[in-house]
Amino acid sequence: MMEKIFRAPILNPIDANTWRFYQDGALGIDRGIIVRMGDFATVLNQVDADVEVDELDGVIVPGFVDVHLHWVQHRVKGRFSGELLTWLQGHIWPEEARYVDTDLAQSAATRFYSDVLRAGTVMGMSYSSPHADATQIALALMRGDWVIGNVLMAIHAPSTLTDYSLHDPDALHAFMRQMNMTNYALTPRFAPNLSAASLKALGQIAAEAPCLIQTHLAESNAELQWVKELFPDAAHYTEVYDRAGLLTPRTILGHCIEMRDEEWRCLRARGSWVAHCPTSNEALGNRRMPLEQVRAYNIPFALASDIGGGPSHSMLHVMQRFLGVHREAGVSVAPQEALYRSTKAGAECMGRGSIGGDLTAGKRADFVLLPQKPAADSVEAWFEECLSGKSADLEQRTLGTWLKGERAA
Ligand code: GUN
Ligand code: ZN
Fold first, then answer.
1. Where in the sequence is the signal peptide annotated (predicted)?
2. Ligand 1 atom nearest to 284, measured from its CA
3. Domain boundary among 317, 349, 381
4. For 407, phi and psi rounded to 5 degrees?
5. How many angstroms separate the CA atoms of 77 and 280, rounded?
6. Are 91 and 218 in the same domain?
7. CB under 6 Å to ligand 1: residues?
8. How far away, in angstroms, is 298 Cα from ligand 1 center?
9. What's the number of domains the chain is made of?
10. pLDDT in tens, 83-115
11. I need a surface site. Which of 86, 139, 256, 311 has the fewest CB within 10 A?
12. 285-309 residue pLDDT tens
């Protein structure tokens, strides 16, 4: 008898408008995989009488998915702010250059995984520094399920980064041959760091390699101006990536704020995903991502912390500000959507919709325990209460995190 049952209230996301709550729920797990989920009484009827039952004091939700962050900025998250390009040049690139030191990379990666697991994040997509060693360290020390890429940056950045970037197609090919494509993302940093020819070469690699592709798009006005100067014959920023063949259903684009209608149409046509980073956009003084447009064009998206642009790795904090920034602009958003965009949508974005992201049978038993729901509260009111408070509190709010059915934090 391998199966084990966790008994607790369960909240499972269904879609952007719907979740399902089980007041007395049960999660049956066998060898790390969910084999049944539902009302405790129903589930108990399906199993042998001697099955082990573990009662948890809290509410079970799926582990969180963070589809855009920079693990090499974790140490300095929240420490600096300011306009995107000066922030990058003045604070972020000097920090990333330090990851040439493999001892620093080891200790920072260990700390990163322990912090995100403590905050309930079990899956995500991560930008590394340009260094091959730091990237391999982040892959080797991985806890949870991550997709990681060494940032590719050839120009318009200090040589302390460009000298180590494997942007040359031959060098990149050789490196990628050693990588497991399940956990590797082709990661051009953003258009200003690569020439049109380099981007095109990456597009060719992307067409052949079965990996995810991640980059930044239209995050700030200054960035947009710079791209216009560097690529004067492109109709818009999105076209710079599209011409290179980098926009695919496996592509995840961070931010997407300063976008024209044609650009949304292009993303829709290519089936690419948006990583929406509300806390980072606020911290760096960028505008609100136009959620109304994303909805109107039916663009798939998931939520992300974008640390170190975002001040916290807590997806509860990201959910809080997702609801906050759009409501403050008069756009209606529900807590159901906050949970869905931080779990199931993230897994789908990463091509892992059949593996994780929610608590249905057949998926990996990666879950989080949230504080108990008072009987008198509605599920909506209780969930929004779970999102309230300062980011430092939210980083500690989850009561525990389980990976493949085993307690991990
Ligand atoms: N654009 C290019 N690089 C970065 C980065 O590291 N963070 C953010 N927020 N935007 C970027
Ligand atoms: Zn980013």
1. none
2. 9
3. 349
4. -60, 125
5. 10
6. yes
7. 70, 84, 88, 92, 189-190, 216, 219, 280, 306, 309
8. 25
9. 2
10. 999 999 999 999 999 999 999 999 999 999 999
11. 86
12. 999 999 999 999 999 999 999 999 9
